[in-house]
Batch of 2 targets.
Target 1
Amino acid sequence: MTQDEIIEMARQANLFGIYADEAIDSVTRFANLVAQHERERIKQANAPEIERVNAHIKELEDAVLAEREACAKLFDERDKDIGWYDPGEPAEIIRARGQA
């Protein structure tokens, strides 16, 4: 429920009278408190799922880094085998992608 919806319901319930500005301010603060409470409730209710998803994301990131390093090592070995190594070349470029 949005703040505007809560204010409209307050209007429909005739909560606003002579002191409409003060009442609107109060209802707006109330709407913000309700929204904050709902965000917290939803976050708490979904905490285990959020943790599971975050763990999965971390696993994927680790796998990408491991694959990147494996590719970079292939270039390192190739360059050593042919006696050519320039730090600005493929292995370093691959590793730098993980630091962006």
Note: The radius of gyration is 28 Å.
Target 2
Amino acid sequence: MSPIVGDNDFFEGLYKQKFKSIASEQGEFIYYDRDRAAIDLGVHLTRPGEKGREVSQTRIWFQLKGKRSATLSQAEYSRRGEISLTIKLADLKFWFASPEPIYLVLYVECVDKFLAEDVQEIVSRQWGEGLLRAGTFPADQEHVTVHMPKSAELTSVKWAEMHHHRSMRIDGPLFRGRPLGHRLDPLRCTLKKFEPAVFCRMVGRLLDVHGYDKKQDLDPALLFPNESFGSEHAAFTEGILHNRFEWVFQMSSEFGIGRQDDFRTDGEPLSAQGRCAVLIHGDPPSYPNGQALKQFIDSLMARGIRQFLVFANIENDPGYFGAFFSAVRGSILSCTPLLLGEIAYCLLTTTVVYLEFRESVSWRYLNYLWQ
């Protein structure tokens, strides 16, 4: 008797071909020679460039499923807010633990639409980390039901959102047990001066990922009355840091190794959180006016603000550093300016921002971690 190609096989081939037709506009396909990974296919995403589509650093994997009209009618689809499907528990655990993003894609025949959602989102919504914990499911359970909202429709917006996914190397040297995705020593590298506008954007991103909520803009001329500032060369604000922003005073870090042992002293850790003023100085033309700075600090104190963060696009400059540091001496307000040595620590320990600005970075001093 000859093998039979049944209706389910035909249906599966149909929706897989439909998906590939859509996905072909978003990137290059990746296949397994043998179907042993419980993943149908991958797409190495591309984005529009000047000479054509440029290959990105993002790869997405997809597992495809389908719902036939005989199983889910259009009327039933309209009534529901989410669609359920049965998945092998072992496969779901494998996808959830994957180092690269895996999307579950469901083709709904009655409306000719695809729903697509990151498996991490599905699992986080239904079980969280408990999915992998022994005892969450009976020992003999082989399948689970997952629920996909109809709002997860696969659209051009969702394809664009997929570019936010990143995979990170974690097999290199660790920094205090943490994989950073690079081999650079955060404590012993110093940046070269940035182009001012790039510096301001980069520090702005560092603050953004630490939950900085700007409340008001200030005029840098308050501190530098004899200078003019372009909007891209300086940012002066007040706001709230919702997450602790940490850095290390590089001058207190030991760079060399002694003859007796390989122990090196780490620098003094500093941090800020809560209400604060922030100056991002992309092109410091001079030191702040001493009297104007003291008046500003007094105004901060009067309003209960005890932190002033200064980011300066300069290497070690005792005069610039000292102007701010001496102005707060004797008060309870903290202000230890971050120069390019301290900012290197912030950048290298905030991997997502480092990867965004990697091509704009040059190094004055470059030291590596080792295994």
Note: The first strand starts at residue 27 and ends at 30.
